Amino acid sequence: MKFLASILCLASSALALPAPSGADATLVQRQTTGQITDQYLYSITLPTFTSRRNARDPATLNWDSNGCTSSPDNPFGFPFLPACHRHDFGYRNYKDQNRFTDAGKLKVDNQFKTDSVRGVCEALAEVYYAAVRAFGGDTQSKRADDLVKEYEEKVAIYDKLVAEAQENGELWRVD
Fold it and tell me: Which of 25, 29, 40, 120 sits a CA distance of 20 to 30 A from 131?
């Protein structure tokens, strides 16, 4: 008898619970690493990215970076390092996710240019952008001579602008 009373008590309690309906009935799907990578590359601000990078959040993504490789991280005090960190994040995770194609590389490189132009000398950002296009990460196609030529043109423009600014006393000399 006690057993039957216990069963009836549990059954009535279970029936009293609210049943999921509508939006509550669907499970919230987690983002894939590819979706998180794209969100961090293209949808959040560079300072927010830097905070997440410093926290290694989430740990499942590749946060390794070599900074700006052999280019200066902060030429003339312009902070390129955060843009270089996000650029490395894009390259490494796109490679890990088998998405590092010519189109994927171009998209990551374009974001690097956008990040670099914010708050820094646009001519120098153009040099860095041309450098990653010409020399950054291997894809299916070999480096195009026209990209190397574009890089050399951007360096020449930048050098001319720096020399003019130094002659006018607007920029210090680092020699």
Answer: 40
